[in-house]
Design a protein that fits this description.
Elements (H helix, E strand, L loop, with lengths): L1 H37 L13 E4 L3 E2 L6 H16 L3 E2 L6 E18 L2 E17 L4 E15 L11 H19 L5
Parallel strand pairs: 1-3, 1-4, 2-4
Antiparallel strand pairs: 4-5, 5-6
Length: 184
């Protein structure tokens, strides 16, 4: 009789162990499902037939060396990260064309101790064409984007001209998306 009781005890602990493991497996599965739901995107695409894009090399009329290459690289990476349009070189559904009309870096604020902030301004001309129907979707002849930076203030959002440029490139991408794929 004692043997049976100890046998039951071993059997019960095995079932408790198995039930505990199953509970953790179920909890783990629920967590995985919840986390995969977090990957849901709220991006919209008002032009769902467009899947691929070509980004033409921007013409640089500003005289600022390699600016067009920096913008091209940024846009290629940003479109790749965004994922709504895949960048291709052959047979794209649409094309983004641009011209850098002007670039300036000017003193924005100063005091008796010297220059506090600089303003970086880039003037763009942009055209986005749907090649599947040969229609211009969006065209902007004069898009001015500006950012301010300070080399002397750690409180400033941007500490260098390069950081200010990157912020302008991000604004350029956001402006493009807002006026093309994100139209309601």
């Amino acid at each position: 009789m004692i043997f049976c009781i100890s046998g039951l005890s071993t059997k019960n602990s095995y079932f408790r162990f198995k039930r505990g493991v199953m509970k953790y497996i179920i909890y783990f599965g629920i967590i995985i499902l919840l986390l995969s739901g977090c990957a849901y995107s709220v991006y919209s695409n008002s032009l769902p037939h467009l899947k691929t894009i070509a980004i033409s090399s921007f013409e640089n009329k500003s005289g600022e060396f390699e600016l067009e290459e920096n913008i091209q690289d940024f846009l290629l990476n940003r479109f790749d990260k965004d994922g709504r349009l895949r960048v291709v070189t052959l047979a794209p559904d649409c094309i983004l064309e641009g011209t850098i009309m002007d670039y300036s870096r000017k003193i924005d604020t100063y005091d008796e101790t010297g220059i506090e902030e600089y303003a970086v301004k880039i003037l763009f001309r942009l055209k986005f064409t749907d090649l599947t129907v040969n229609e211009i979707i969006w065209e902007k002849d004069s898009l001015i984007l500006t950012e301010v930076y300070s080399e002397n203030s750690e409180a400033a959002e941007f500490q260098s001209e390069e950081e200010a440029r990157e912020a302008i490139y991000e604004k350029l991408f956001a402006e493009f998306m807002k006026n093309t794929l994100e139209q309601w």
